[in-house]
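pls design
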């Protein structure tokens, strides 16, 4: 890219239209599908489209677009690395200063491709909740964790996601009008699809239609990128955990918040879920407490009969199921 010596104003030229279109398509796919197609057939388009896409996303200043795009690029890299030779994977890992080396598989042991220093492993596996990523369940020798190429690719996905997220925090100055047109189109797309995006991250077993008005209000604020109080976050998090949402899904939901902090969010959600500290699984505050803190905007008939958000959810869920059964008869 440095050799190409492209100036921002140059991007207004028709010569770069195909590059801009590819950059926009990367971001659009990320918003809609949280994935990015493998590549365009022309490297002269594909390579410069990445930094331009990063610039476009940064210019949107939209936290939802930023989180979707960083995750999509990271997943794309992870999939590509699974088909690469060990040497290529090593080069990518070395870009992040990993202490990693290739290993030969022992015929009498499970197959491994790499040995990674445990500090690099923990830095990237902390947010994973599958038991196989727990250090106690890994083969560890002399401070090194033994991994397959696929597992290393997954850990690198986390590095890439953080790397891209760091790039997206850069302040973008004045851009040519044709680029701003792309920026505005993508911002509008995110606004139109925000509700669908939030819904896709809610497990099918969690019925949003049964949410009490207080919880729905907090949920909608976060989904739209608006800030909420500490008590509001606690109420929503504890509610979601108690109705069956996984810790990982709750953390992913909070990624769209403007002040999202991965480490702090993981700690707080896991603490509420009873995985840390006293190991106590917390429940949401009672209705009277939520009213005191202004997190009870409206009420309905069910609200008048209950004193707790979880009681509302159980009653409303029962009503929804009964209505669905009646329609089938």
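designed seq:
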């Amino acid at each position: 890219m440095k050799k190409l010596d492209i100036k921002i104003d140059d991007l207004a030229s028709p010569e770069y239209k195909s590059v801009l279109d590819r950059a926009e398509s990367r971001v659009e796919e990320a918003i809609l599908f949280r994935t990015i197609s493998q590549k365009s057939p022309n490297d002269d388009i594909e390579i410069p489209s990445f930094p331009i896409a990063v610039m476009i996303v940064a210019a949107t200043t939209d936290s939802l677009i930023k989180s979707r795009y960083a995750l999509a690029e990271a997943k794309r890299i992870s999939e590509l690395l699974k088909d690469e030779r060990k040497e290529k994977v090593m080069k990518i890992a070395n870009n992040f200063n990993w202490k990693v080396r290739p290993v030969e598989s022992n015929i009498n042991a499970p197959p491994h491709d790499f040995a990674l220093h445990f500090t690099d492993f923990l830095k990237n596996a902390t947010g994973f909740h599958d038991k196989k990523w727990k250090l106690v369940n890994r083969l560890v020798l002399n401070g090194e964790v033994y991994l397959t190429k696929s597992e290393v690719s997954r850990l690198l996905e986390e590095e890439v996601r953080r790397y891209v997220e760091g790039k997206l925090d850069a302040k973008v100055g004045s851009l040519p009008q044709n680029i701003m047109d792309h920026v505005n189109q993508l911002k509008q797309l995110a606004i139109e699809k925000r509700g669908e995006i939030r819904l896709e991250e809610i497990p099918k077993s969690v019925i949003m239609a049964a949410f009490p008005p207080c919880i729905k209000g907090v949920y909608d604020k976060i989904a739209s990128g608006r800030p909420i109080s500490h008590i509001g976050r606690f109420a929503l998090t504890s509610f979601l955990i108690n109705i069956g949402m996984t810790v990982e899904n709750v953390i992913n939901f909070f990624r769209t918040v403007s002040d999202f902090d991965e480490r702090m969010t993981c700690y707080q959600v896991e603490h509420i879920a009873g995985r840390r500290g006293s190991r106590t699984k917390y429940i949401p505050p009672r209705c009277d407490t939520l009213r005191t803190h202004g997190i009870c905007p409206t009420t309905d008939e069910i609200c008048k009969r209950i004193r707790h958000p979880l009681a509302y959810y159980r009653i409303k869920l029962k009503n929804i199921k009964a209505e669905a059964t009646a329609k089938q008869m």
